[in-house]
Amino acid sequence: MAPLNPAVVGTSFYCGIPASTQTSAYDCVAMAADLGITQFFTSLQMPEADIPSSIAEFQEIGRLADRMGLNIMADVHPIAFRRVGGNLEDLGPFRDIGISAIRLDAGFSDEEVSTLLPTAERFGMSVVLNASPVTDASLDRLKALGVPLKGAVACHNYYPRIESGLSRAFVAEQARRLHEYGCVVMGFVASRSHRRYMTYEGLPTLECHRQADPGLAAQELLTLAWCDQVYIGDQTDDEEELKAMLEAAKDPCLVLTLRLNPNAGMAEKMVALNAVHTHLPQEFELVHRARGDRQRPGRPTILPQRVALARRRGTVTVDNALYPRFAGELQIARTDLAPDIRTNVVGWVVDEDLGMLDNLGPGIRFRFHVLTN
């Protein structure tokens, strides 16, 4: 599925808990903003956070946000009103500490959501829905109450406890549902450099992304249109992670990590590794197919490899000169296949990325990242 909305990336900061970075929350926000990130997430409802004692820190970050044109979304449970002040008809205390959007966690009825919308509008703020638990029935109830869903942002939960994150299939289905109602979908990836108190297990939406590079995980969510916006859930001052997120937003494509075949020739490696590929517009039974670089005059001849290898699921191949019409075509095995002297094995998608192949299909753009160790 092609993305429906422009890709947006962001990151997070947290006050009132032990920091996961040597850098303060304020300095983390400033550094990310200097790199070009304008979207930030925080929480006002973590049970372990001392929010009342952190109001001054939030205000300082809020002043920075005003100066630099940053947007801060805060996760809010009804308990946040007791900590920060305000109520369903008065979001002034939230606005005063720099919050520009409130993301509704559990604890709000549909009627309270409909009450909060005009309140937020009066204060120049927006309301963000919880994407993870919604159903057609719950979205229909919101519509009946007059909640405008077209263009509304729905943000998934992140999951601090290891093994508790969502599945790819569920996130894909939620994206389909929310996009049908016109919503913009947001999710999280985990930092690998810094993990938030108190589990220190990362803050991803998908369990399979818990140990993944955040930039590559964001690429998957954005390319497959499972999310339109992706934030790093943890507070991080890792400049390379933040830059990778910005790169992911510029030109999303699925990134598959590849273990190279040491016997692969330069000609087939050039076809596989030197381009962003687009899956052909059909879905095929046994392989994923991209045009690759079918042979044209002047291109290096792709000679057959000395030994034809069996092609287990995830094997990346390029057809050689023994396949005259198809020489240069790139394929990825969807299932285990027998050796074929007409097709050269370039390498193998690593086990951790094999799950992505289930969602590689017509029109999806992808490239390979070579495993270096």
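The above is record 1. Record 2 follows with the same two-line structure.
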Amino acid sequence: MIRALITLALSALLMVRALPASAQDQGLGGSFITPFPDNDVYQVQIVGDWLAEGLLSGLVEAFTVGPGVSISRKRYDLAGLMRNSAPNELAEMEQTFGTDPSHIAIVMVGAQDRYSLNRRRAAENNDAWRTEYAARVDRLMKLLKKNNRAVYWVGMPNMRRWQDNERAQRMNDVIRERAYLNGARYIDAYASFIDENGGYSDWGPDVTGKIRRLRDSDGVHFTQAGYLKLAHFVERELKRDIAQARTERSIPLAGDPAEQSRVNPDKVRLRAESARAEAQAKAAKGGVAAPAANASADGAKDQKLETGKVDIRVLGAEGTEQIVTVEIVRPAIPASVVALVTRKQSNDKAAQMGDVLVDQIPGGLTVMSSIVPPRGADGTRRRLSPTQSPYFRVLEKGERLPSKPGRADDFTWPRPQFTAEVRSEPPPVAETGASSRQR
């Protein structure tokens, strides 16, 4: 019994040591994409067959708006991994991508590889195919990951013929496993295009939610609307990782001081202000003459205590209108706090402080809100009475402010960017079918 336990423990230890470092490092933090691309622009290269060509067209349209991503308009052609010429093509790719300047590689290949599966589906033949296919997927992922390149692999979609659909699932099982072990991103295209019953359908909702034809007549490829939807899932993963990479810029030692000052100027300025304040405090403690107490190095001055009164009309207990006087107190604010609050307004002149509203909450606590009046058409600030401020209208009177287009509380439908006319027509289904599911 003891010998069996020792053998089991040694086997588990060998399995842990056999795992690639990339699989173990996933989930330990850090960005998937390099935080500092050349010229602050991410270069994207598409690799694959005709499915990848359609995906490229959808990604080009998806990234037309927004700087920071440049997608190569030329696809690197790779018809399949199980063809006889595949080893030579992979060898050429190793040389090409050894000097390729791209930061991101997006792969979609396998439409022709489904024919390499044995039609008899014998267990020994399937095992041999799986081993060979996994080895070639590993080789492609590793050569693309060189030079700190992020790899995204889009799996096979569902297909009309049940034989092709079964083969696509087997290929996806291998790709998903190898992507995890090699530290690549796997994007599931199979589950994204099944219908409500889990089967294949030529029609479905596009990126705007409208029912359209998404698949081509061969049951394998996509229409233009389908490629746009496929690109949407890739775009979502890509933008999420790019956003994560950009947050890594603020981590110490992620870049040299010159790079940090360029990508995060606010933190550098705040650090300089903190150092200046510490120097003033040390000078005051040591008896050395310091700048005037009522002014900071930025020219901001102390705000004195001010008290104001506001008359508000309310209904009394008997239904009669009464006037209640509310006292508004703005406490004294040191010049250092004023400079800190107004530093983003101007580099050479402190901005004017806004109106301060004070409210009492349970527990003896006082809440202060600073309301900065908006600017008018002439560029000057327009003073608002406290009763017209957003704070009083929303939190005191309970009014709902009108939403702005594109903001989180804007529920208008359809979205303005999706109001363009479409050419294709929906399938001839009953009103209670597609339209009810769409809603």
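The mean pLDDT is 75.
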